Amino acid sequence: MSTPGYPIAPDPNVPWTGALRRYDLIKEVVIATLVVLLLTIGCSLIFSSPDDKPVTIASWSAADPGDFLTTAVSELNNTSGTATYGPPYTHVAGSGQNLIGGISLQRIVGVHIPIKAPQVFVLDPLHIVAQTDPALTTVLGEYESASTSDQTKWTDAYTAALPKAIFKGSSVTLPAGHYGPVGPMMSALLAQARAGGLDGALISSDRFYQSDFTRALLFLADGGYLESLAGSQHLQGSQWGMMNETGNYPGQAWLWLYTFWYQVPPFSTSDNADAQIWGLMALFSAAFICIPFIPGLRSIPRAVPVYRLIWRDYYRRAER
Amino acid sequence: MSSGAERPTWTSHLRRQVASMPPEKLLPDTQPVYVASWIYVFGALTIGAFIVVLLSGAVIAMAGPSWWHHSSFGHFINSTHLWSTEFFFAFMVIHLWGKFFMAAWRGRRRLTWVTGAVAFLISIPIAFTGYLSQQNFDSQWIGGQAKDGINATGAGAFFNVLNFGQMLLWHAVLLPLFVGLLIAGHVILVRRRGVVPPLPGKGGA
């Protein structure tokens, strides 16, 4: 027998007819908001928030000109990360991650943000400079009219010589070699980058206003400089990077399960890790939403006596 | 032959729905006696944090997305936006765990759970697009990393994490509007069905 107004097994399908208590909903929400506001202001005053300056193409080319030129040549000869990426940026046969078996949503959707790496990252920006530099115009003409095999021969030779390059300001000196027009082209691109011109060239469009940084960010991501800075801040994928942010801040802690999979086999060594982990998380998310409909999962609360703790005062009266 | 006025219309259906939620049901001043645990506070705390997130975001929106980089007051407001977001997620997760252990979907309350769970999942891209809209090193790095995951799903062709303008609008308009509507619907469902009663006690069914 239970206490009146405290049924031992209340029916959740019918409106409550048992004992009531006074409850001020608006007061609770107002006080809760004020408490959060005070906590927020306190944390903001004590801990502030991170705001590390963004890397520019100018700062990258000044800090690590070797990495900058290595990246630029890889764009020119179509071997960079972006050039070989596949959808949604480039048409590369067989590229794109597989979700399961040979099924790739990436390939099915296809190229929607086309990027021609040699033109976008090297040739088009150099053509801007060439408008006031006749010698560069001649050099660009020589490169663009050359055969693909000659272009490859020049870029390969330049790439091989870059580790021995000596940098002084905006100038680069390489050992003697058969670089063809690639040598003066890369020197001009380095000078353009250090002056800030490449930052502007990569975000410009045929319209005055712009808000799309895809090309500039892809170029930065193709290099090793941004990654080395991120590594020093423990932000790389193997360092739980997706949920961290610069400095000692909590970051996106709610991404812990998503980030976790990148740390463990088979995902940590899979070429299709992104597609597989997103597929897995989609299944988990669907299961989370559908808990009330999944036999077994929806019965867990009855087996775990946490509810007895939550309603301990109620049960004390009901079971008296 | 029946008159047109007797047939149910979309308007009459909406009127019945509104009438089923009189003010005393929407804004009650009593609750069942079992609504007496600290775990119930976390729902209100989540809403409180959401309000602070919206207010701090509104201040940044009024001054523009670059303002906080060159204003000490702007940086403080950005800090409040960050920390209220952290509290929003912390309180929401505690609220969700509490509702899970109460099996709060019992008694035709499954849609209440579903709206809450979807609100939690949609809140993740709100925060994520916020990080992409910061215009600092974190934005650059997170965008560069995240593009691979989103591209792998095929969605990257339409949801370009490297497009600042697109991400800012998703962050400041579309996703908050969606989550705001979900939270409103969630609260109305809680008020309509009432707070789920305790699971059967010892000796109960």
Entry keywords:
A: 320 residues, mainly alpha, two-stranded antiparallel sheet, 16 helices, 52% helix
Sum this structure up briefly.
Chain A is mainly α. Helix content of chain A is 52%, strand content 3%. Chain B has 205 residues and is mostly helical.
Can you tell me about this structure?
The complex is a heterodimer of chains A (320) and B (205). Chain A is mostly helical. Chain A is built from 16 helices and 3 strands. In chain A, strands 2-3 form a two-stranded antiparallel ribbon. Chain A is elongated. The relative contact order of chain A is 0.11. Chain B has one domain: Cytochrome Bc1 Complex, Chain C (Up-down Bundle). Helices cover 66% and strands 1% of the residues of chain B. Chain B contains 7 helices and 1 strand, in the order H-H-E-H-H-H-H-H. Chain B is globular. The model of chain B has no long low-confidence stretch (mean pLDDT 94). Chains A and B meet through strand 1, helix 1, helix 4, helix 10 and helix 11 of A and strand 1, helix 3, helix 4, helix 5 and helix 6 of B.
